[in-house]
Hints:
- With 181 residues, this protein is of the alpha+beta class.
- Helix content is 21%, strand content 28%.
- It is built from three helices and nine strands, in the order βαβαβββββββα.
- The chain has helices at residues 37-52, 67-76, 169-180; strands at residues 13-21, 58-64, 84-85, 108-113, 116-122, 132-134, 138-140, 148-154, 157-163.
- Strand 6 (132-134) and strand 7 (138-140) form a beta hairpin.
- The chain starts with 12 loop residues before the first strand and ends with a helix.
- 27% of the residues are buried.
Amino acid sequence: MSNNTESHKQFYIATANLLNFANPNRTYYENAPAYNDKAYEHKLRGLTDLLAKAHADIIAVQEVWDSNALETLAVSLGFKPEHAVIPLASNDSASIYTKGMGAQNTPAVGIISRFEQLETSLLEDIAPKAIIDVPDIGPYQRFNRPPLVLRVDAYGQPITVITAHLKSKRAFSYVTKMVTY
């Protein structure tokens, strides 16, 4: 019998855009109807069925409006509510970012992890060497949707996971302007 301790240190990471995942009856965009209870449950079941197939220990997610919704999804996947990290969509009234109102104006990114959380931060400012000058807009110095950085202890090894959801409409808008001139 061979010593196969290395296989016990494997883990899986998945990522998913949850496409405007919000609490039921919550308006997230003025031009989009809120999910009623039935639609929310349908979306939750669909996401659970999809993500369960990944058997992931860490799931990076995008487009979440409410931490409560992400915690419910985490529990449906066999995680604990506290395994969901999503500071910019917090429904906790003590949140310095959201005052308990969930994400505002744009959805947030989050991470669900089975591993012990060591440190959480947001990448709000772009490093000076990475700043780009966007024509007709100016220097792009801050993320509209700050990437989330989570450091976890995976089997005694600290690892860093980053999830981001970069804006795409700005570039499309610029291309449209170029074509119409």
